[in-house]
Hints:
The structure is a homodimer. By secondary structure, chain A is an alpha+beta fold. The first copy, chain A, has helices at residues 5-40, 110-121, 143-151, 160-166, 180-188, and strands at residues 45-48, 53-59, 67-73, 81-85, 88-97, 102-104, 125-132, 137-142, 157-159, 168-169. Helices cover 37% and strands 28% of the residues of chain A. In chain A, helix 2 (110-121) crosses helix 3. The first copy, chain A, is globular. The A-B interface holds A 39, 42, 44-45, 47, 49-53, 55, 65-74, 76-78, 82-89, 91, 115, 118-119, 121-124 and B 39, 42, 44-45, 47, 49-53, 55, 65-74, 76-78, 82-89, 91, 115, 118-119, 121-124. Bound molecules: magnesium ion (2 copies). Chains A, B: Pfam families: RecU.
Amino acid sequence: MINYPTKKKTNTSMNITTKSNQRGMGLEKDINDSNTFYRECNRALIYKKPTPVQVVRVDYPKRSSAKIVEGYYKTPSTTDYNGLYRGKYIDFEAKETKSKASFTFKNIHEHQIQHLEDVQKHGGIAFLIIRFTLYNETYLIDASHIIDAYKDQKQKSIRYEKVKECGCLICESFTPRLKYLDIVDNLYFKEDSYGF
Amino acid sequence: MINYPTKKKTNTSMNITTKSNQRGMGLEKDINDSNTFYRECNRALIYKKPTPVQVVRVDYPKRSSAKIVEGYYKTPSTTDYNGLYRGKYIDFEAKETKSKASFTFKNIHEHQIQHLEDVQKHGGIAFLIIRFTLYNETYLIDASHIIDAYKDQKQKSIRYEKVKECGCLICESFTPRLKYLDIVDNLYFKEDSYGF
Lengths: 196, 196
Ligand SMILES: [Mg+2]
Ligand SMILES: [Mg+2]
């Protein structure tokens, strides 16, 4: 097969898209798998919220279920995940970045920040899970660090070093993929930490 | 306009569908409105989970956002609502019935029962909101009553009288439409009730 320049270019750009999608799905899949594991061993009850879809038109083909023929993804009003752990309400957003230097706030909606702040006000546990894909490192960071930085008009991002300093690196294993509840234990359930 | 018999029949059946849909949506809308009110006055942080959609095919029209052109409603893996109230995790399912005699368990999936049981095991608050539309009465009933009845192989439903006896009638008002958190206060936050 002859590699025409145009053909080659198309292939390359497709590969990039696929890779970036896989990367985009990578963290979500790791967390979903971890949550399934945590549920199966009765450690926690945490689910990904479904992506909201604005359904515009539905067909009802004979003898089969309703078929959505026009719909659009809506911006989620809250965060990716919530649930119940050790009797406490848990809520978090998961994000990946390809940057080596920082996690930019362009990646996060203002109402998501507001929601995380509300969770804390109502006595829940709120945090972010941020993966720096180029370092292959995933951090759990309490929402307050991100809320404070986000509200500081001069800041448009949080530096990698700051995430490393204020957050906790999540250990990875076969099951669960991301042992993030061990971090939650240390951060929120130590007698001298948050006073729960 | 002449009312041809066939035309009339179509109209009638459409009206019934519309009414039953409105009734189907009635409780959900009332709860959603109540939750919006409760959020706005900072009393609680409770949301309806989006209905999960299995997206099969997406088009990307030029210069506009992704358009779902083939999708199907999936069975939700959990319940309709969850959130945070007075520092506690809250989870519930809302159901309407047109029966005057009972609420049939056909209306509820086994994995929803399992989920409500798991919520209780993990220290959360789990209940159902059941509306008997023909009485125009809406009850909040702790999940344990439904779980017990559901697990009893001989029972295929829970009688209206039993719901009335074990549940609490929810008062209605202009805002919030359903004052269900007052019931939650009485049922779960009294010192001598659940030991929270
Ligand atoms: Mg996310
Ligand atoms: Mg329902």
